[in-house]
Design a protein that fits this description.
Blueprint: H1 3-25, H2 30-37, H3 41-63, H4 72-77, H5 81-90, H6 98-112, E1 114-115, E2 118-119
Antiparallel strand pairs: 1-2
Helix pairs in contact: 2-5, 3-6
Amino acid sequence: MGLMDGVKNVLGDLAAATERTIAEVGGQNIPMAFAKFYPGGLAGFLDRLRENGHGSEVDTWLQGRDPRPVPAGAIEACLPEPVAEGMARDLSLSRERLGTALAEFLPATVAGASEGGRLTPQPVFSSTQVVGKAAG
């Protein structure tokens, strides 16, 4: 086995480990990560997606049937950098994979946390200090 084969194997192993982490994380830890790092928690984030033109997609998630995707880039655009960094750490993902993981798992997560087309009460621990603003 040559050096390039070894590098390919290592990179393949890293990619596989990342995919396993995403699969293991699934949606179970996402609401808590939003509670910790996003002002307003998961509900606040869904409101932000609506404000950015993705309300019909969010509604399909809340209804729990035929969820329509939101592109990873659109999800990333709604996450301030300090929030994204904290969530990535909390979910054991690289910062670069966070948007993709949320795009994949957020629809089912929201559906699982909804009843009758509405998000059930969610914990919220974040504050404006978490996203880098002074309290005041």
